[in-house]
Design brief:
By secondary structure, this protein is mainly alpha-helical. The chain has a domain of 89 residues: P-loop containing nucleotide triphosphate hydrolases (Rossmann fold, 3-Layer(aba) Sandwich). Helices cover 21% and strands 6% of the residues. It has four helices and two strands. A two-stranded parallel ribbon has the order 1-2. About 21% of the residues have low confidence.
């Protein structure tokens, strides 16, 4: 999204024209908007500070609000570690799609689609849809490699500025023997 479109979206949210703002971590810090009643984390934040800044949108000048973190059951340990590292005393509560709180936040659940009506890779328009479980039987864990004690390194490519090839078998440009 272009910067001017982001600015218009944020201004519309701040003015109350837009009731919902979907944002990345970019909007977690340094942006002040009054009247935010709820923050929904759709996925685990990358670190405790991001979690605090996202959720802090609801607690401006003594105001109260809801801070909801949506996660998978197999991410329970990661959620507890995140809350502990963020200094939060919140207690995770499991919720089903038909829970009253979930219904108030998200509306009724979408109807279930029988397996024979689901898209297959050949029916989709360029998007691969998984049609069977992982061969190992283990669910894929989002964020399983997160380390909240230290931020991830953002170092550049080890090949940047080097004459070394990036892949084995590739030769640097220049005269050949």
């Amino acid at each position: 999204m272009a910067q001017n479109a982001r600015s218009r979206a944020l201004a519309g949210f701040a003015e109350g024209t837009h009731r919902v703002l979907v944002a990345t971590d970019v909007a977690a810090r340094g942006i002040h908007v009054d009247g935010v009643d709820i923050v929904v984390h759709a996925g685990l934040p990358s670190d405790p500070k991001t979690y605090q800044h996202r959720g802090g949108r609801t607690a401006r000048a003594g105001a109260h609000g809801a801070d909801v973190l949506v996660s998978l059951p197999e991410e329970r340990g990661l959620v507890r570690a995140l809350l502990r590292a963020a200094g939060s005393d919140a207690q995770p509560e499991p919720a089903d799609a038909d829970d009253e709180v979930v219904m108030r936040l998200a509306g009724p659940p979408a109807p279930k689609i029988p397996p024979q009506q689901r898209s297959t890779p050949t029916q989709s328009s360029g998007v691969r849809v998984p049609t069977q479980a992982r061969s190992s039987g283990a669910p894929r864990r989002r964020g399983a490699d997160r380390q909240w004690e230290a931020p991830a390194s953002r170092g550049g490519s080890p090949h940047r500025g080097s004459d070394q090839p990036r892949r084995a078998g590739r030769r640097p440009a220049g005269p050949q023997d």
